[in-house]
Amino acid sequence: MPLNKQILLVSRPQGEATVDNFRLVETQTPALADGQVLVRHHYLSLDPYMRGRMNDSKSYAAPQPLNEVMIGGTVGQVVDSRHPRYAPGDWVVGMGGWQQYSVVDAEQPGLLRKVDVSRVPPSHYLGAVGMPGVTAWYGLVKIIDPKPGQTVTVSAASGAVGSAVGVLAKQRGCRVVGIAGGPDKCAYVRDELGFDDCIDYREHRDLGALARALKAACPNGIDGHFENVGGTVLDAVMLRANAFSRVALCGMIAGYDGQPLPMLNPSLILINRMRIEGFIVSEHMEVWPQALAELGELVGSGRFRPRETVAHGIESAPEAFLGLLKGRNFGKQLVKLVD
Amino acid sequence: MPLNKQILLVSRPQGEATVDNFRLVETQTPALADGQVLVRHHYLSLDPYMRGRMNDSKSYAAPQPLNEVMIGGTVGQVVDSRHPRYAPGDWVVGMGGWQQYSVVDAEQPGLLRKVDVSRVPPSHYLGAVGMPGVTAWYGLVKIIDPKPGQTVTVSAASGAVGSAVGVLAKQRGCRVVGIAGGPDKCAYVRDELGFDDCIDYREHRDLGALARALKAACPNGIDGHFENVGGTVLDAVMLRANAFSRVALCGMIAGYDGQPLPMLNPSLILINRMRIEGFIVSEHMEVWPQALAELGELVGSGRFRPRETVAHGIESAPEAFLGLLKGRNFGKQLVKLVD
Known about the structure:
Organism (chains A, B): Tepidimonas fonticaldi
GO molecular function (chains A, B): oxidoreductase activity, acting on the CH-CH group of donors, NAD or NADP as acceptor
InterPro entries (chains A, B): ADH-like_C, ADH_N_2, ER, GroES-like_sf, MDR_fam, NAD(P)-bd_dom_sf
Protein name (chains A, B): NADP-dependent oxidoreductase
Domain Enoyl reductase (ER) (chains A, B): 17-335
Structural class of chain A: alpha/beta
Radius of gyration of chain A: 20 Å
Number of domains of chain A: 2
Oligomer: homodimer
Order of helices and strands of chain A: EEEHEEEEEHEHEHEHEHEHEHEHE
Number of strands of chain A: 16
Shape of chain A: globular
Largest sheet of chain A: 7 strands, mixed
CATH topology of the largest domain in chain A: Quinone Oxidoreductase, Chain A, domain 1
Number of helices of chain A: 9
Largest interface: A-B, 33 and 33 residues
Helix content of chain A: 25-40%
CATH architecture of the largest domain in chain A: Alpha-Beta Complex
């Protein structure tokens, strides 16, 4: 059996996460039992939710245990199988974690999913045609539920989730305005993803400036907003929100000191008769087939070309993850594990 | 035609509203045109929403114009009619305003509604079997949508809206916990309205204390919350909110300086996968018949005995209204105009 490089979480962050919270180890992959398959990971997905798991605090998911392999989505190929439905060479998506190989009980439902890489490159099953894409789909379709001609905004618009929100909203005939950090990301959002406009929040640092930029970009107000960030962005959106507008709450950052950022004026929820709803995509597995079908078609046909930032080698995962938290990635952040 | 005492709004509040914002005038009621009826108001309703109308700022409703009769719900009797469907002696509910008489175009839909005072005393058509009751019904039934056994909390629980929320939630098999100010109101909420418990927020002034009191009163967490107040109450409820809990946002107060009170930790909306929804009952006229039927039955059968605070004479309306804003009323605040 092959050697397996793994990244463990060995301590919890005090404030900002650092590379010292992680440790690289090397182990032997175990021999397969009946029903198990050995998967060689080609790509590891890095996602913002992982930061929450590093804490030992109440959230919707249990914390990542210390001294175990960091959780994470992976796409790879079966290299050995003792399960009748899987054969060497099969491409599979799963939660293999921050490591080069994983041994999976293929009988357990939901742990492995075979994917077709003939039209969709494997890495996209971790992004636009995977969890981030379905996250976008659920929040947009099930919470915002936009009508043609309505205006939809999305923060972190160049990211894996935000880009899919915009493309899906354009498919539904909406005016779509992104919010992203820096001119390169905004140009990508407008020119390559096809958003109607994109606001560079770095050019509009305070609430008033951001609200004015939103007013200019959304002359008919905002009917739906997909929130990946929170804080000032959400406060500004609420100032431009139309009556009966909907906010899908997918991600919220904390302030610099780790304290939660307040919502400045919640009475706008009443004044604008808004609906604000938080969700976790893994609690809505019933939508995955429909969502993945639409997303796969968009990517497979080339109408949606998701951007990726790729780090190389499992050793680079902690540094790449910390960069993701600082917004240094551009599109979906991956780690390529097979050269 | 009779003389008519009226209260006008003559200036907008700078900070706190005062009696100087109002002026009493006396006018002659005009002669009736075809299709009009003259209504003598027996009761005027005083409601928190009126404070918002006194401002000249963006909200869901236009501001109250200066030097015109303050808007307000009224119940009274037709004393003269030039409309075939209304006869002297008919009891009618309408938006007659802060005055003793009103002349109404009875042909315009929605301005007048005949009511049956044989089982329900007329004043309750301004409270439990009127707009406040339907407000409670909509937020509870259409937004919170509680299941039997779930826990529902409501702030301003002894008030016209809050008391109806609790009674309706008990009808639906919920555990119901009120939040009110002072031992008398809490005793009424528990002993007369039949809530399972009531928290005196004056005994739990800060967020931590209020959250602990909620934890004790809601051992299974909070599944639905009806918010009439906002601020610390809402922050505390969010700390005890269950996964997939719903908040119906009906009223929000501002801080002492007139600035909006922030929501301290909006990331709890995501962590608890909450849905928070603001609403205005007048935008949901389709539910009124169903809601009024249930509320009328509860009041008519004596299972719901709403408390009223009654001021006497139109001259007392400004002072009574300012008392309502300070929570000095106990239950529905009315002004009795006919002795």
